[in-house]
Structure formats: structure tokens, C-alpha cells
Amino acid sequence: MFEGSMVNSSNQASALDTLVYAFDTKSQQWSKPTISETAPPRRMDLQIVQDRSNKVYVFGGLSGPLTGSQNTTWFSDMSILDIARSSWLIVVASGLDYPLPQAGFTATLLTNGTI
């Protein structure tokens, strides 16, 4: 599970913690896997898809007070979590042919591998 914003229920403050959690369906237990490389900035209203090679693609979203940021930032980056290697790759958009920063949208992985 990729987590973007979380609020501490005791004081309603933004609770900054790990970005990735794993749930073991057999033991019914949550864990915090160790992920190498730098994680993408915390965000909310993003979209995630996973392919058959166990890579998780995280696109867009925005940061703000609920994600621990004082300023609102809209993202147009693609972050890829390689589950097998437990590592992040952040792809920064360049050139003219990439989506504008956005949040609150949908994403679908097509059978040809296009998102």
C-alpha cells in the first residue's frame, strides 16, 4: 500500500510515516518493508497501477498540509516501485509530450503496457 496522507486520530495532526506498507494475507499482519533509493515526495489524490512484473507505477497527485507540506505542489512525475528489488525509480518528465501536473483522476494499465 502506498500512503500519501494520514492524520493522527488523537490530535488531528498530519502523521508522517513510511510511504509503503505491506499486508500479508496469510498472517493478516502489516509490515513496513525497507525500500532503497529515495522515495517520491508524499502526496494525495494520485493514481497507482501495477503490472505483471510487480512494478508499481505512481503518477501525479498533490502535496499540501495533509501530507506534511506547508505549500501545495502539483506533480507530473512518474515514480516506479520495483517490488522484487524493493527500490524506487523516479522519472522526471521532460520535453513537450507529457501530462500536465494533475490530481483526482483515474489511470488504467492497458494490455499493451500503456498507462
TrEMBL record:
Origin: domain of life: Eukaryota
Keywords carried by this UniProt record: Kelch repeat, Repeat
KW tRNA-binding (keyword) present: no
SUPFAM superfamilies, sorted: Kelch motif
Keyword presence, Repeat: yes
Pfam families the UniProt entry points to: Kelch_KLHDC2_KLHL20_DRC7
Entries under Gene3D superfamilies matching the protein: Kelch-type beta propeller (2.120.10.80)
Protein name: 15754_t:CDS:1
